[in-house]
What does this fold into?
Amino acid sequence: MLPSHLLTLIIFILTYAVIALGEIPWARIDRTGAALAGAVAMVVSGALSESAAEHAIDFHTIALLLGMMIVVANLRLSGAFAFFARAMLSRAQSGFGMLAMTVAASGILAAFFINDVVCLALTPMIIDAAKIADLDPIPLLLGLATASNIGSAATVTGNPQNMIVAGFAHLSYSSFAIHLAPAAILGLVADYIVIAAVYRRSLTATRAPADTAPRMIRVNRPLMFKSSIVTLGALAMFIAGYPTHLVAMSAGVILLFTRRIKPARVYRLIDWTMLAMFTGLFIVVAGFETTGFQTEVVNLIGVQRLTHPLTLTAVVAILSNIVSNVPAVLLFRPLYSMLGGSRAVALLIASASTYAGNLTVVGSIANLIVIEQARLRKINLTFFDYLRVGVPITLITLAINTAFLTLWP
It folds into this structure.
């Protein structure tokens, strides 16, 4: 590696170090701030020109994510998520039934909508349902977090890392789902079995009444109907092969034309910091690519060895738990063509980074959302509570996924 690239490498390492830590307390800078600071430093240091930095940003991925955020915001405001979850939970007749419905509801919703939002919408309802049933909420909350991660692996729109991989690998929505949805379904079954086994005593302790779901749910039926129709139309167009970023933005813009809610309420539910972080990370990774360091690492390890399903799964899973799954996936963006540029490699990167999010509490933002909302309701879901189910679930789902993609590349 050339000495002139040393500064670029230092900027990259410092940026990813802050992302791994989450923040620098004394500097009050978070992951988004670190990504933006790193991006500016790449341009100021001369690692990238302004034009190169602009071209490094994957606007298709940003547009897809923004469009889906607008769609999901409308669904949340209409009460659609709560309505769907209540309809499923009301069918539970026992603690085990409530766990099964929780896993199913969160897994299905996360397959089509961003898993973080699913956890935000369903956590309060799951807690209320457990209280009504006089049931320990911990296994249900664990089911919500882990199932939302597993279900999100099934489609392009399930989580941000899927969107990124589908963008740089040019994977269609239908191809992505056909290859990854079966493993995700098996993963949800495994998720239920593990949690049910670990928490069998508390789930057996109380039989849930016929209607365990909270009754007070505000539903804006006209908005829910409109949002649902637009969403179903968008999903149909995804499957038909239309450009996902254009479909998502079109759906989002259509939903902004309404008399039901003020646009400001929708904008407040959009995660602008995530969009800003992605923008910065695209530039940081592009700057890192100019060093040639990644080429040396791949050559040192060997392409054939690194592209072996077990090796690639392990590397992606480890990186995802060090720097989080989205930054880890972005690291593979410049390496994708070097690793053969195959669909199998892309699918493995997307799915392994997603399933790895279940390993620990910090593996996924969805996990942290559930834990933080539970804490606000005086429910202490500890690191070790999560680890008891997170480790076996992650190992099992990674094994299922790797085996499935190996047999059907």
In short: The chain has 22 helices and two strands. The chain has a mean pLDDT of 87.
